[in-house]
């Protein structure tokens, strides 16, 4: 019985760490939030999507979806936001390397 208790107490911290790390979503990475905010500031209109929620966790912002394990932005829906003008070729959105889905429909880009 003593041996079983010893083994249990040796692996218990590992099991707790595994359980907590897999159940809690990661927060948005700072560089991901910065890229989104830089994109927002490239347009003079008020983007109703990005950072309306004052949380520093961009994964909790409207229309922003992240990988729950890594905190990387994977989906961004900017449809129907009244974005106008030329879409910059050096857009900070290109820094979102894990972005798999980007919806820019129903905006008014030119050039």
Automatic annotation (TrEMBL):
Residues 1-21 form the signal peptide. It holds the Pfam family LRRNT_2. It comes from the Eukaryota. It is found in: Membrane. The keyword Membrane applies. It is a single-pass type I membrane protein. Transmembrane segments: none annotated. InterPro entries: LRR_dom_sf, LRR_N_plant-typ, RLP23-like. Its main location: membrane. Keywords: Glycoprotein, Leucine-rich repeat, Membrane, Repeat, Signal, Transmembrane, Transmembrane helix. GO terms for cellular component: membrane. Residues 30-67 form the Leucine-rich repeat-containing N-terminal plant-type domain. This is Leucine-rich repeat-containing N-terminal plant-type domain-containing protein. It comes from Solanum bulbocastanum.
